Amino acid sequence: MECEECDPSCNSCSEYDVCLDCYDENEIVHPDGVCALPIEGCLQDPTTYRIEEGKFVCDQCDLLKHFYFEDGRCVECNEVLPNCETCSDTTICDQCIDGFWLNADFNECWTEQEFRTFYEDYITEECIGESPEDFILAVDEDDEFPGQEFFYGCGECETGFWNEDLTCFDCLTIDSNCAECENGDVCSTCKEGFIHEYKYET
What integer pLDDT is reported at residue 103 of this predicted model? Predict the structure, then answer.
């Protein structure tokens, strides 16, 4: 029995054209024993491939590389959901790329400025937040945003403002010399040089 050389694409083989592993480390052994480059986005494991009508078909995408499965192929999330890093399907983004945050109401990735512009009546300049993660998602019971189920509001306001219904209001509306307040009725701290009148009541 003579020794027969493997196909040039094989590093080792069980038959001439049935590879066990590949000469090119970038290639993988497909289900028919042929060495070929993996399908883009497909999990690089031979068990995730099958042959259908003479073509390689992927059955499992590489989610760690941000691909999801649709109609027998792997599609990058960012291809159908702008600025989306990971997704479950064509309609659900799970995580946005750096610099963008998920707006759960629209299922879109927005910048902080887009949040502040769209919800400008609620997320004003006085609203504290290092990123939209600090904003509060609430049910839009008063239909402030027609067609939307939720809206984003402010979770915490700067000193000199109080938060009511996720909106910042200026303490100066209570008293022109008020520095801090907890609500719209009582000034808790006066500006320097002023004190509460009740301290002098006898």
Answer: 93
Q: Decide if 183 is inside a domain.
A: yes
Distance CA 173, CA 184 (A): 8
pLDDT mean for each 10 residues of the chain (202 residues): 79 84 83 76 71 71 67 76 83 89 91 92 88 90 87 93 94 93 90 76 44
Nearest CA-CA partner of 30 in 15, 17, 45, 41:
45
- Let me know: does 162 contact 182? Beta carbons within 8 Å: yes
CB 83 within 8 A of CB 101: no
CA 182 – CA 55 distance, rounded (Å): 68
Host domain of residue 189: 161-200
Is residue 182 in a domain? yes
Residue 185 lies in a domain: yes
* Number of domains comprising the chain: 1
In a domain, 130, yes or no: no
Tokens 């993988």, residue located: 28
